[in-house]
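Hello forum,

I keep getting stuck at the same step: I have a sequence, I want structure tokens, and every attempt I make locally crashes halfway through. Rather than fight my setup again tonight, could one of you with a working pipeline run this one for me? It's a single chain of 188 residues.
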Amino acid sequence: MDRIVRVSLLAILSISLVLIASRVRAGFAQTAPATAELKISGAVSTPLVLTVADLKNMPRKKLTVVNPHDKKTEAYEGVLLEELLRKAGVPQGKNLRGPAMASYLLAEAADGYWVIFSLAELDSGILDSDVIVADTMDGAPLGAKQGPFRLVAPHEKRPARWVRMLKSITVVRAASPQFRTGSKKRAR
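Reply #2:
Ran it on my machine without issues. Output:
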């Protein structure tokens, strides 16, 4: 009798696990995006949702860098971040002045990593940063651990602001100093 109970419990447990696993798998299949997307939102006039195909149809930039971690030369290709911000309607050039100079963007990865760039750093009228959103490395699409999108800042001494698995870019306007501190002085 004891053996029959153990076998019955084992059978019930096995069936339960199979049912749970199939439901979990079905849930993942329903929530996984069909194509990878990069969202650009926040203080923009035209929020964007871009795919790899969208980036392929935009002006391309190639960069060759030495990865400081493994000392290997890598060739990235993608779209200048400045171009993506222009497409989203972010102030650039002569329009990047006054309060807009205190704007920044938050670049966020699928794994929760995030970095900040000021808009001025990304404006070629101020600085030649050449920051790109890459979708290929050494002529091949970025692998799952790097892509499908990667933010590459080639002129930085270390790649701390390179964002692998880039999923979103949010433009933020910083609050004025008088709002933050209660001061009545106007910023220059």
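The beta strands are 38-42, 48-50, 61-67, 72-80, 103-109, 114-118, 132-137, 140-141, 150-152, 166-173. If your local run keeps crashing, start a new thread with the error log.
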